[in-house]
Design brief:
The chain is built from 8 helices and 4 strands. By secondary structure, it is mostly helical. It binds glutathione (GSH).
Length: 227
């Protein structure tokens, strides 16, 4: 088995968290041209969506979409589990991941787009509208987030893998890049969650991998586009 992925993207991050938690030590491969305009070449044969991550099995079968990959890993390698046994808790895990994918990530897209452009081309109206949407989706999550240090219940689940990397972008990366207030001020439950979950060694590990990848990417972009 191997994982086509990059350390920059938050989607493979949730898969890596599941792999680390299950002790599955598999190779990571970065598709050429995934984060630039050089074209994705043969990677499109592995994943026609041209996105990361993709899980490739030893027999050559390939699976795209981070959530689906996490579910597959959970089914194929059930111990230790990141999926609660209780049906209500399991539904909460899926709900948090879904709110994250369908609302938070969607709201962040214009910010990701702006980050790849020269600052001179930034449309501040669009950026502030996106930040307002991000705030709205964080408020949805504030309603449902767990209060015992994890997204759901008192142990690590797939919901933490989905949420923590996206919160890092919403709480740390976006306010710094666009020089706007940290949205945490009005989100006490999410703030407490984020502070607590970062202490989990595997969450700390994937977050550091992301920070290092952002620093490497920043070092490669021209000065006027840097944070
Ligand atoms: N729904 C997908 C999203 C994957 C995704 O959008 N990955 C981005 C990285 S942030 C990507 O590969 N982008 C390359 C591109 O769009 O060209 C998942 O959960 O795996």
């Amino acid at each position: 088995m191997k994982l086509w992925q990059t350390f920059l993207s938050p989607f493979p991050t949730r898969v890596r968290l599941v792999l680390y938690a299950k002790g599955l030590d598999i190779p990571f491969v970065e598709p050429g041209g995934i984060h630039d305009r050089s074209g994705k070449g043969d990677y499109l044969k592995i994943n026609p969506l041209g996105r990361v991550p993709t899980l490739e099995l030893d027999d050559g079968r390939t699976l795209p979409e981070s959530e689906v990959i996490c579910e597959y890993l959970e089914d194929a390698y059930p111990e230790p589990t990141l999926r609660p046994a209780d049906p209500w808790a399991r539904a909460q895990v899926r709900l948090i991941a879904r709110l994250c994918d369908f609302y938070l990530v969607f709201a962040m897209v214009p910010l990701f787009t702006a980050s790849g452009m020269s600052r001179r081309k930034w449309d501040w109206q669009k950026i502030d509208a996106a930040l307002a949407e991000v705030k709205k989706s964080l408020e949805y999550l504030e309603h449902y987030i767990g209060t015992e240090g994890y997204a759901v219940g008192h142990s690590l689940t797939q919901a933490d893998g989905a949420l923590a990397p996206q919160l890092m972008l919403a709480f740390e990366w976006a306010p710094r890049l666009f020089d706007r207030p940290d949205p945490r001020a009005d989100l006490p439950k999410l703030t407490a969650y984020y502070t607590a979950v970062r202490k989990h060694p595997l969450v700390a590990r994937v977050m550091q991998e992301t920070r290092d990848a952002i620093a490497r990417a920043q070092a490669r972009v021209p000065k006027e586009k840097q944070i």
